[in-house]
Amino acid sequence: MPPASLSSSGSSVLRRIESSRLFQGAVIAIIILSALTIGAKTYELSPWVERTLGILDTAITVFFLLEILFRFVACPDKRRFFLDGWNIFDTIVVIGSLIPLDNSEAVLLGRLLRVFRVLRLVSVLPELRFLINSLLKAIPRMGYIALLMFIIFYIYAAIGSMFFAGVDEYLWGDVAVSMLTLFRVATFEDWTDVMYATMELHPLSWIYYLTFIFLTAFIFLNMMVGAILEVMSSEQNAREVQQAHDERDRIVHQLDAVQEQLRALTLAVQAQQPPDRRA
Amino acid sequence: MPPASLSSSGSSVLRRIESSRLFQGAVIAIIILSALTIGAKTYELSPWVERTLGILDTAITVFFLLEILFRFVACPDKRRFFLDGWNIFDTIVVIGSLIPLDNSEAVLLGRLLRVFRVLRLVSVLPELRFLINSLLKAIPRMGYIALLMFIIFYIYAAIGSMFFAGVDEYLWGDVAVSMLTLFRVATFEDWTDVMYATMELHPLSWIYYLTFIFLTAFIFLNMMVGAILEVMSSEQNAREVQQAHDERDRIVHQLDAVQEQLRALTLAVQAQQPPDRRA
Amino acid sequence: MPPASLSSSGSSVLRRIESSRLFQGAVIAIIILSALTIGAKTYELSPWVERTLGILDTAITVFFLLEILFRFVACPDKRRFFLDGWNIFDTIVVIGSLIPLDNSEAVLLGRLLRVFRVLRLVSVLPELRFLINSLLKAIPRMGYIALLMFIIFYIYAAIGSMFFAGVDEYLWGDVAVSMLTLFRVATFEDWTDVMYATMELHPLSWIYYLTFIFLTAFIFLNMMVGAILEVMSSEQNAREVQQAHDERDRIVHQLDAVQEQLRALTLAVQAQQPPDRRA
Amino acid sequence: MPPASLSSSGSSVLRRIESSRLFQGAVIAIIILSALTIGAKTYELSPWVERTLGILDTAITVFFLLEILFRFVACPDKRRFFLDGWNIFDTIVVIGSLIPLDNSEAVLLGRLLRVFRVLRLVSVLPELRFLINSLLKAIPRMGYIALLMFIIFYIYAAIGSMFFAGVDEYLWGDVAVSMLTLFRVATFEDWTDVMYATMELHPLSWIYYLTFIFLTAFIFLNMMVGAILEVMSSEQNAREVQQAHDERDRIVHQLDAVQEQLRALTLAVQAQQPPDRRA
After folding, report:
1. Residue D269 lies in a domain
2. Is A278 inside any structural domain?
3. DSSP code of B176?
């Protein structure tokens, strides 16, 4: 397999370049530059600056395209390249940036996709990648709590739009709008204004708001407590078991030595027995 | 007991149907459909859709009635069926749905009871049932904190309506209304508006608000810390004791072996003694 | 000491009465009744009800007076009675209630002191008393954090009133008023209104608000984390040390037994030595 | 080295003075006095009081100057004096106070620097110094979370100013202003007003706000959980390992004794062997 080994040695050079601090730094610098041009475009700019930014944008797009191609070539296993979520993400963002900005129809979509280039910072910095991974791991844990929350919001929204639609069509018109209003209440955002309005017609409607706030706050609190405990106990469990093993191994080894000594002693005692009594 | 065994074998078939994934899936699908019809009714609808929803509602009610009867028949012990809180809850919700929606007087009650059908999702999904059970377990722990909070709210409300009733009858009219206002202050909802109004007449009333906010926040914080610690320590305690036992059992067993060796050795030494010295 | 023993047997009867569930229940009932009359007085009442409440108030005052005297007599050690903070608290509240309500000048003070009767519920219920004690224990832990917070508030308030007094005299007039405004900002209560107003004159004043919010939130967060950790580690430490001792004691005892066996074995071996070699 | 020992004995006297409770108390008292004069200046004052405060200010500046010189002289190692961050901080604050207050141009800067004298309380009280040090230690832990938060804010701000700049130039004009608006949304400060305004033009913009709130709340929550866990596990780890060592050391020592006994016993048994069998 000379060609394979050749290619492998070639790609190992590429990989050494890829993982060099200079290359990484250059990519990070270009991403930050890209972020700055995105931010700059939200300001009023003179045509001259606008044109410069356009050229810069093309240059950045080309750089990112070359960088992803380079990383693809440097990757020893081409199939596994697209099994990594971060590579797929990078590729989509880069391909999305190829949409030209002068086409008046797709201009908004093109600009939107360019914004996501900033997220490439996450895929490039290993610490942020690790952070995101650990955040993603926390999601399933919250799945059923989120479902429960949704059910509570839905029931309260259905009741709310049933009773309060007449009070304020904008806030309680239908179940979707009511859920948005309830989310507002859950964030305590001017929730008393909402309550005082409905209390004009339904004087007891404060029960509705208070039970809702207590329910959501109670579930949220328990969710947080649960999250802390779950991560903690799983992590600690592993750590403690490991530590206990390490510590006790010393005792076990010492006990092994004791048993060894005893065995030797027993042999010595037996060897001492007069020959006539041995049989 | 042939009839009993017959019925038992019959009900075991029913139970197998009941716990089948298909049956569970059908029930969940119907509950979600029911939730959607409830949501749909909060929108402006054409008479044709309205009529279809009415028919759908009847069909869902009949399905739920049949489902609960089926589960009752499938249950091996009829008495224990109604000892399970979830079964009682399901039965009440289903019976409540039997109230006809065309009767103009009971229409609101009927619609309200139909909303609670969505809660059946909780009783059907075991994960949500488990979640609710663990939440219910957390309630007693918070009982005395809630009482303490109520006492603080009551005292501040009594003082508030004593001093500030003249400032704003709507906010401080009586002790009940004052408690609602204080709850608003506790959620930081436009609390400075309330304070600035009373500070016009009572320039030192900021003391009232600040002590109240500090007290409630302090108790809330401690409650949360307490909740985390209580659940944690009880859980961890059990885990650690178990683990410590497991680990130490190994050492104890090894020590047992050492003692066994020593006993054998002692016997060997004693056996070695000349016969004349044994007596 | 016959008189002493007589009095002691008499006071033991009183103490049995005092700690009886009936007596405790009666006291709790009267406190709740007292709380209700306090609440009732905040409503508009007919003269007839008002008069009834007045009589009820006198009756409650007399009852509380008798109760505290009874508890004082029932107390075996009169000196220690006033060393207990709860007894002092009860006595002050009861004596405060003796201020007559018809005297027009002291009427507000009298009513205020009557409000604190509700707090007697805390001194009567042991669970609440325990809760308050554990809350009081948490205060010193927060002492230096509170001082640090005060310093930060003071510095920001001094800077605020230095720069923003011209913008809004009411919010930033002097250092005291500025601290109140900053507390408002810390609770996120319409803080952007305050910021937008000062940004008109000082466009960079958002730095002031953001650094302040980050500082207070950061310190608050760390305080909470610290509180959880401190309580936890002290509690857990005690628990773990205890448990570790219990578990290890078994191993240590077994090792003692091993050493005992070894000593016996050594003696047996020495006893076996021929008499001539012993000296 | 007589001169060195002389100077060292002289500085040890100074150091004894420096660490005396009286000296410390005087410094704290002067700092508090300094804080009060800073606060007093924010009020409307009569010219007489103003003049007195001016004299007081000069006196405090002189006192602080003498104190820092004294501490510098008392310090045995002059080089290490400026390696301590607290000393550098004190020196800068004191030198900053030397700016005269009557110079009309630098008056604001001079007053601002005088405000920071209050912070000297932190450098003087060891408990606050310890607190600040532990807070500073918590910062790096939050570094990458802060970066992630900034990226999310930046992306949302870029999208926001792209779509909503036409709705409200003041809130969404450019990327910087949008980030401020998003920070407002993250603190739930009248965020629905912002949302309802943009929903007029973009009815689906609630998705923008809800995803933003969920993302920031989710990351914040995880950051808090992470902070609790990290501090806890590192602290607990150290504590547990220490405790486990202490406890197990006892067992290990006892096992050493057992092995010693066994060694002695083996020697005894070997000594017992008849001389002819020894070789």
Report:
1. no
2. no
3. H
Residues A134, A220 within the same domain:
yes
| CATH (domain of B74) | 1.20.120.350
Q: Which residue has the tokens 């492998």?
A: A8
Does residue A10 sit in the same domain as residue A92?
yes
| CATH number where D143 lies | 1.10.287.70
Residue B246 sits at the vertex; the CA angle it makes with B240 and B252, to the nearest 5 degrees, is 125
For residues C8 and C70, state if they share a domain.
Answer: yes
How many domains does the structure of chain C reveal?
2
- Measure Cα distances from D184 to A145, A190, B3, D213, D256 in Å: 27, 14, 72, 11, 67
Distance, CA of D52 to CA of D62 (rounded, Å): 15
Does the residue A270 lie in any domain? Answer: no
Between the CA of residue C216 and those of C221, C262, D29, D39, what are the distances in Å?
A: 8, 66, 26, 20
Task: From B124, B150, B171, give the residue that closes a domain.
Answer: B124
**Spatial separation of the C-alpha atoms in residues A205 and B151, rounded to whole Å:** 23
Angle at B218 between CA B214 and CA B223, to 5 degrees: 155
Pair of tokens at residue B268: 């060997």
Rounded Cα–Cα distance for residues D182 and D176 (Å): 10
Query: Chain C window 133-162: which residues touch B at a Cβ cutoff of 8 Å?
Result: 134-135, 138
Would you call A187 helix, strand, or coil by DSSP? coil
Q: What are phi and psi of D98, to 5 degrees?
A: -75, -15
Listed residues B108, B124, B140: the one ending a domain? B124
D270 CB neighbours in chain A (<8 A) are 268
Who among B147, B188, B232 is closest to C189 (CB)? B188
DSSP secondary structure string, D100-114?
A: -SSSTTTHHHHHHHH
Whether residue C8 lies within 8 A of chain D, CB to CB, comes out as no
Residues D9 and D112 in one domain: yes
CB D137 within 8 A of CB C225: no
| Residues D134 and D106 occupy one common structural domain | no
Contact D190 C190 (CB under 8 A): yes
Tell whether A139 and A247 lie within a shared domain.
yes
Nearest to C195 by CA among C221, C172, C175, C222: C172
Q: Cβ contact (<8 Å) for A235 and D237?
A: no
Distance between first and last Cα of chain C: 70
For residue A66, give every residue at least 6 positions away whose Cβ sits within 8 Å of its Cβ, in sequence order, or none: none
Q: Decide if D278 is inside a domain.
A: no
Q: Is this prediction's pTM over 0.90?
A: no
Per-residue pLDDT of chain A (279 residues; tens, 9 = 90+): 444 444 556 667 777 777 778 888 888 899 899 889 888 888 888 889 888 888 888 898 899 888 888 888 887 777 888 888 888 888 888 888 777 666 666 677 778 888 888 888 888 888 888 888 888 887 777 788 888 999 999 999 999 998 898 888 899 988 999 999 999 999 998 999 999 999 999 999 999 999 999 999 888 877 777 776 676 666 666 656 566 666 667 777 777 778 777 777 777 777 766 555 444
> Interhelix angle for C175-186 vs C206-272, to 10°?
70
B154, B176, B273 member nearest C118 (Cβ): B154
**Boundaries of domain holding D165:** 130-261
Same domain, D139 and D254: yes
Closest CA to A196 of A168, A174, A156: A168
What one-letter code names the amino acid at C180?
A: L
Return d(Cα B241, Cα B245) in angstroms, integer.
6
Maximum distance among all Cα pairs of chain B, rounded to whole angstroms: 117
* Rounded Cα distance, D33 and D24, in Å: 14
Tell whether D139 and D253 lie within a shared domain: yes
Residue of A nearest to B265 (CA): A266
DSSP string of B114-172, one letter each residue: HHGGGGHHHHH-HHHHHHHHHHHHHHHHHHHHHHHHHHHHHHHHHHHHHHHTTT-HHHH
> Do residues A211 and B210 touch, judged by C-beta distance below 8 A?
no
- Structure tokens that stand for B66 in this block: 């049949």
